[in-house]
């Protein structure tokens, strides 16, 4: 099976221009464009998703393609902060539902969805996450009541829960990129615990 290529905005723009040029009629008696029956010759895809370990963002979606013409282009939506694409497989995916579209050289496209689930888990906010938040975030001058920056008070659970995954800028994104805590850093096990708690629904447990 020929390899797929991840899409880019520049490629899309160039592809659109080339298709528009190829499909436009001319006044010099040129050959009219041929109509492509995408239902007969277009690509079809099968997706195989592998769950991520809770808090690790190591899920994947493998793509099997049948049919299609020429070079095949593939897009992933939504696109996580960090992911890779090789050997017709998206890797390093966080849990969630993803739409994958494949387009061939005739501009015939097909789209399917896949769900990356979670394995493991069982993280408790009270036992596993709150001690991290109180030691690294709810400290003097930061996420406590009356702080000068106007930051939410993370000694209050509902403030943490409300901002757990409100991306962009939510706790999940900021912890993963290292933007949180503001001072110091988190151990890999602490990051995994926070992400896992969020991915399991940011429960009051």
Rg: 23 Å
What name does CATH use for the topology of the largest domain?
A: Immunoglobulin-like
End-to-end C-alpha gap: 47 Å
Level of helix content?
Answer: 25-40%
The largest beta-sheet arranges its strands as: 1-5-8-9
Which descriptor suits the 3D outline?
elongated
CATH-defined superfamily of the largest domain? Immunoglobulins
Biggest β-sheet strands, sense, barrel = 4 strands, mixed
What is the element layout, followed by pairings?
Layout: E1 4-6, H1 9-23, H2 38-41, E2 44-50, E3 52-53, E4 59-66, E5 72-77, E6 84-86, E7 89-93, E8 96-103, E9 109-116, E10 118-119, H3 125-136, H4 157-162, H5 171-177, H6 188-199
Parallel strand pairs: 1-5, 3-10
Antiparallel strand pairs: 2-4, 4-7, 5-8, 6-7, 8-9
Helix pairs in contact: 3-6
What would you note in describing this structure?
There is one protein chain. With 205 residues, the protein is α+β, with helices and mostly antiparallel strands. It folds into 2 domains: 4-119, Immunoglobulins (Immunoglobulin-like, Sandwich), CATH 2.60.40.10; 125-199, no CATH class. It has helices at residues 9-23, 38-41, 125-136, 157-162, 171-177, 188-199, and strands at 4-6, 44-50, 52-53, 59-66, 72-77, 84-86, 89-93, 96-103, 109-116, 118-119. The strands form 3 sheets. A 4-stranded mixed β-sheet has the order 1-5-8-9, with no helix packed on it. The longest helix has 15 residues, at 9-23. The termini are far apart. Mean pLDDT is 84; it is low at 8-27.
